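Bumping with the actual sequence this time:
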Amino acid sequence: MTLLNIILKMAEGLEKTCAIFFLTLLFAIPLGMIVALLRGSKFKIISAIARVYISVLRGTPLMLQLIAVTYGPYYLFGISISRNKLIPVVIAFTINYAAYFAEIYRSGIDSMPIGQYEAAQVLGYSKIQTFFKIILPQVIRRILPSLTNEIVTLVKDTSMAFTVSYQEMFTIGKQIANSQTSFVPFVVTGVFYYVFNAVVGFVMGRVEKKMSYYKI
């Protein structure tokens, strides 16, 4: 197989890698915020549940979670989530990354000075208005470097989908390497991941620059 054929095959896998990446961000970013708010709830039971969720998802391997979500329902209840493995893969990635995003959000929210809340109250803002109009924009600006780091990690972690035989970029590269008894496909795979991460880093850098308005 020529280098061009390897690149074309890898490009097919890139489409599925992008599907995991973008769908995970689409669901994990808002879910992480919800979990962070639940963790800070005044109701101890709700807060405890959120803490346990974060502890379990951060304390167990993503690979194990992928296997549990993909095959667990069948072995436990005799049902299959879907014949399309993208669905359980995205579910596993979403619940895992939501736990990490939740802690990043929490650190940002907790870092805000109490004076900001008091000033908003004096100006007549409700708690919801204070959070979404004053606190959240500043929190996002503060946590962007940490979010960027997790998003870059997500790009690389998509390769773990090979655990459940989902045909993303790394899986295809591994199959070609085994069939051709060559290390070249792994090199090409590495280049694809590097370029992907470079694009992500560039985009997040632009977002951070745009959000510099909220820097305090």
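The tokens above came from a reply further down the thread. The chain has a mean pLDDT of 88.
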